[in-house]
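Following up on my earlier message about iron/sulfur cluster. Here are the inputs again, as you asked, copied directly from the submission form:
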Amino acid sequence: MEREWELQATCRHEDPDLWFSKRSVAEAKRICLEVCPVQVQCLEAVLARESQTADTMRAGIIAGLTGAQRAALAAERREQVPVEKRQAPPGAGRPPAPCGTRSAYNRHIRKGEKPCRPCNEANNAAYALYRATGSTKVATGR
Ligand code: SF4
Ligand SMILES: [Zn+2]
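Thanks, got it. Here's what our run produced:
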């Protein structure tokens, strides 16, 4: 059954190949992140839908993210603080991470906002790191 937001998905009216061809990755991402009004809902839906999917089987650009980026985001969320801590009132504990960081990117997502450009760039950079090292954490030496 279709959900309400899916009726507003920009990709409904476009050639689906655009989201599944290596040649049009940049254009697909641009549409998802800058044009589509339901990117946030789309992202949550695909993360839920792919929760049992092997990382390498996450196909296409969805919600502006490649399969590997979605896998990295899912992995990062699994690592994050337990739910009890996440529900601390705003302003409690550490100050929120500024825009342009992966934490701020995730905060946008949690709040149902479309991530701003610096946050998208931070997320993309973290993804590149993940692809190069298998981890989203910057190596700290030993
Ligand atoms: S964000 Fe999701 S719904 Fe919107 S265009 Fe991209 S894939 Fe389609
Ligand atoms: Zn931001």
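One observation from looking it over: The helical segments are 25-35, 39-49, 67-79, 83-86, 102-110, 117-133. Hope that helps, and feel free to reply on this thread.
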